[in-house]
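Memo to structure team: turn this sequence into structure tokens by end of day. - J.P.
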Amino acid sequence: MIVVVGQPFARRGPSGWVADGAAVRVAAAALEVGGRVELLGRIGDDPVGEALVLDLARRGIGHAAVIRSPGRPTPVLDDRPGGGEPLGLDAGDVELGLRYFVDLAAVAIVDPLPEAAVGTAVQVALAQDAALVVAVERGAPPPATALEGVPNHVVLEAPGPDGRPAFDRLVGRLVARLAVGVPVGEAFRAEAAATGWQPVVLAHPAVGSAGRR
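Reply from structure team:
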């Protein structure tokens, strides 16, 4: 089981609302490689959110851990890169969502989370011997939470908006490889070579990278 933690957004397509955003792109890329993928995020309890969930189901992305927030609108992407206002997740949301799955093999955190929420994800990953991928915003420091105890983990620095779709595909494919036991260095090198990304920082014991094409 792969769980992608992040904000799902809705985007209006030719036939109605569809799911989009970094978390959805990562989940879709992981699904391409194989395995079961679930999304942990928050949406509004509204028709847009319902359409988003239906699109996730149509694409084979699990939504058992998608949280609905009454009285808040589902974030919508417009034509501006990075548009929409995330609803956010806290440590309690992350713990409840991740512990719902007893066969957890890998977790990908693709949007900024409070430090306590990242720490919770680390604890769950350790308890279930799961791999962990954390994407941080460009220029942001890595999480202060100690990740060294997680045997298979990687921290990646995301590029700007123009490069984000390709980066998300890399993250999704990488976490899918880690989920089946491929060592993090080997998995990263293979996927970086396949997508044209190059690591610019190496950190022990995993690869910390500001992806660059």
